[in-house]
Amino acid sequence: MFPVFDLPLTLAISTVLAAYLLGSIPFGMVIARFMGLGNLRDIGSGNIGATNVLRTGNKLAAFLTLLFDSGKGGAAVLIAGTIYGETAAQLAGLCAFLGHLFPIWLRFKGGKGVATFLGLLLALNFVAGFAACMTWLAGAAILRISSAAALAAAASAPVWLAIFGAQHTVGLAILLAVLVWIKHHSNIRRIFNGTEPKIGAGK
Description:
The protein is mainly alpha-helical. The chain has helices spanning 9-23, 27-34, 50-54, 59-84, 86-101, 114-124, 126-143, 146-163, 170-183, 185-193. Helix content is 69%, strand content 0%.
């Protein structure tokens, strides 16, 4: 389930720092500011991800946030994997994800990690990542609740990786899925209470 850790200490440290700093870039806040949409902390849930950006009513800003947040996870995995190999790829994916969740620039109060998770998953195993993305789309279409779709996609990721022959990444996917669920604790409570906003409900 986990790769053999075969990185020299200096390479491991450089991978951790570079991936974390890349993951910690709060693209949602940067894009919202650049497009004159205000401070995301004062909008909707206060989250820095694409779902909250969409609550501004600007679909382009939300799409760009989704693109960049997923892209930083994928980029971390691909760059580290190309230079240093499989172990570095998984380590970089983990650290980019943690950077998004706990960015130093925002006093370690970041997003919930779904887009970054899906982006790094696509880079680790494209077919499994695509299946997880389709899980999100199916959940969103059926339930009309973005957070519920995200929880389903995160939970499905280890299963898809196992099915499509990437067993060595299953351990990482389980860890990231658990973190996604923990970060969504308030959403889970609202889902059970029937008060979680639905997709398209407005600002």
